[in-house]
Amino acid sequence: MNAELDAFRSGYMAAFRSYLAGGGETGLESAYELGREAVAGELSLLELAGIHHEVLADILASAPKSDLERVARAGTDFFRESLSTFEMIQRGFGEAQETARLEQRHAAQLRGLADAALALNSTLSVDDMLALLGERACAIVGADRAAVRMAGDGGEGAARPVREGGRLVAPLIARGGRKLGLVELSGKREGEFTEDDESIVVQLAHMASVAIENARLYEHERDTALELQANLLPDGLPEIPGVEAERRYDAGGDGQVGGDWFDVIPLTGGRLGMAIGDVVGRGLPAAKMMGHLRPALRAYALEDDPPALVAEHMAEFVRTLDRDQMSTCIYAVLDPATGELRCANAGHPPPLVLAGDGHAAFLTGRPGLPLGVSTEHPYPEVRTTLAPGSTLLLYTDGLVEKRGEPLDVGLERFRQVVAGAPSRPLKKLCDHVLGALLHKERGDDVALLAVRVLPPDSGPLDFELAAVPGALAEIRRRLQAWLAHSGAADEEAYDIVLATCEAAANAVEHAYGPADAKFRVRARLEAGEVTVEVRDRGAWRDQRDPRRGRGLAVMRELMDDVSVNSDDEGTNVRLRRRLREG
Amino acid sequence: MNELARIDIDRTPLGVVARISGEIDISNVGAVKRKLTDAVTSAARGLVVDISGTTYLDSSGVYLLFDLHRALEGRQQRLCVVAPPTTPSTRVLLITGFDHIVPVTSTVEEAMEKVGARAPTAPA
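The joint structure predicted for all components is written out below.
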């Protein structure tokens, strides 16, 4: 790059930085001035766009993640302003040189070019850029068809523009002269492709080349970091008796890689260790840092130290890395046999506990400092007991934080979503929570780890009740609890309870016998199939009674199999339903 | 009626809205029916029964609604049931084909329109 361009680039960088720092209208005026300067210095639109891309890329690379969106938006405004003056002056030249019609058309093309530059500039994916390039090129020169081909995919061989036989081909060439591919237009709507068409498409192709190259570099870094992160997070969760565990990870919407991490570690005596953390920052450095933390935590956890001590070890470990990076972290140890939970928190949002009855509450207690801040402060340990059926939820801030909103509001929203979600199976709870809380504009990544303490195997259900109407509510309560323990999803449980109560209602209404008639309800789960039997000591008086027929129809609709058998002893209704896989 | 279900009656000049929360089975279906029947004055265009908050409804409950529909029809009054898809009790209405005979809506507002009553805020 020559000295003049260098100087212009520095000026552009300085003006853009000052605009970002709050220059407002004055800042935009400097963009306007830069546009004038560019024209006076005979810079092409391409050179101006190239400089803008470089400056923006530099600034984005060093901007904090929370600021990326603002910088990108400001970049678009700033660039638009510098182009607007550029375009006016270009139009001024045009007026002096061309006839009114041509001038108008050319000005429209230049506007199209400026718009396309802005659009390319605000796109981060190469595929989107290629589509955009074809579409905009067609619109600018009034062509019907565009094909964009990349080198290695039929796009070689174009080193210079070609305009012949109803085709217009412009090469895509990277800085340094490497051929990226070509854009080919055909089907000009009015007449043939002109020299102006060629010049404008060549300019557009140049601009797109710069943008494509930048985006490829960006995608490459992102892919590397994503791959690194995928390799660093656990593939699956270990099977631990007495608990059900689920995990979710979402990389976030800004295309960057975050530093969220988690782990589940089987410990001695049937206990399990659970960790979640969030490295401050994004991109490759955060992913690398996470790559250090997870194995370190696993090693300390396997020493079987109490969580607070593991947290202290981790703080010390992060200090030795000497990387000036921080991570929040929770480490908790659960004994599924007793429900005992011990937990140490290094600056992370508090764990949420969802009780079996749908009540959700945060595990409060003062957290210690994030890892990497200090090694002087001990980590307090929080202890609690998780009742069977309770679920511990560990998560990262991406799930609860929204820009411009106090954290308390986000935490409360999360708590309410969890309390109101269908809780069985656990998979469904996680899907529901993410579905409700992941909003599109969110940039940050999100990790969620949910661990449920399963009740001890309750075996088959078997009880007898007086055959009176009031017994039905009791059946519902007992069967509901048994089905929940057996892992039935909420709507499966509802269907089975309804079918059973229809059978029991028949027994109550239509069975005859001694005044103290009883019926017996038995339920068992075998190989994923629930069988419920309702037996009474009588015969149903009139099975053609349309009302009872309706009850039977409901049972048949709700269950996989229904059989009714009467003998001298009474009537036995057997209902079967296969539960969906977890 | 026992403690299984609670019924809140809201009488507007144009229609009656009955919200049932809790459970309906053979132990309380008779009491629920009496309360609903008594709620409909002869001046009302019809009855809206809102079961959004009904956590359990069995076939006896569906029969109650069928009977109510027939009784109201005889008096030139209409029944509409509010049962959004998210309510567990909606399932049994669909299984029994109830929705083919009696209008079922997701909101009270839609139901008020079906029974021919205009929303209270609209000019009379």
